[in-house]
Amino acid sequence: MPYPFRWFPARGERHAGRDSAPRLGFRAGTCVEALCGAALVAEEGAAAWLWPTCATC
Ligand SMILES: [Zn+2]
After folding, report:
1. Beta-carbon neighbours within 5 Å of ion ligand 1
2. 1: in domain
3. pLDDT tens digits for 31-44?
4. Is 43 contained in some domain?
């Protein structure tokens, strides 16, 4: 069964990625390929989750 995509913050926006991730999400510094096609380095922190959603994802 395919795992669902999960949201992660990077570069000022929240993106969705399909890479497998730890139960609690991507760790900061993890490179993730987002649904919009960008390879991004995931970030962490409560404020990061307030960033706007990536329109393409
Ligand atoms: Zn995106």
Report:
1. 15, 34, 36, 54, 56-57
2. no
3. 999 999 999 999 99
4. yes
